[in-house]
Design brief:
WH-like_DNA-bd_sf; Metal_resp_DNA-bind_regulator; Arc Repressor Mutant, subunit A
């Protein structure tokens, strides 16, 4: 761990590199509100807490990758629902293709087949 408690393990770095695309993939499936995203990402071991998700959603919204809508609930305050925009869906699809290529390449090297001449 480095100062401030930020973990710098390879796994933590990989998680940080993919969480944005995982959020977009979840929002491509259906609309969700932030707390729901936090729960799903935490269950899957991709984040430790909600501090990652809120700034990420704000950035994705500013980039035009997600759209939002406020909705009144039966009880409690209104909730902001997020969904992937057309640009967000396209970004997830590009990432999925790139991820498959990268994953396959890394697997070949790790499995000892990376030195084909």
């Amino acid at each position: 761990m480095e100062a401030g408690g930020a973990e710098r393990s390879p796994l933590a770095q990989m998680r940080r590199g993919v969480v944005e695309h995982c959020v977009l993939a979840l929002l491509r499936e259906r609309e969700r509100y932030a707390v729901e995203l936090v729960e799903v990402l935490r269950e899957r071991g991709l984040i430790a807490g909600e501090g990652t998700v809120y700034p990420l959603l704000s950035r994705l919204r500013k980039q035009g990758l997600v759209e939002t809508e406020w909705r009144e609930g039966g009880s409690g305050p209104p909730r902001r629902y997020y969904r992937a925009s057309a640009e967000g869906v396209a970004a997830v699809e590009r990432f999925a293709r790139d991820w498959a290529v990268l994953r396959d390449s890394v697997d070949l090297v790790i499995e000892g087949e990376g030195e084909r001449a």
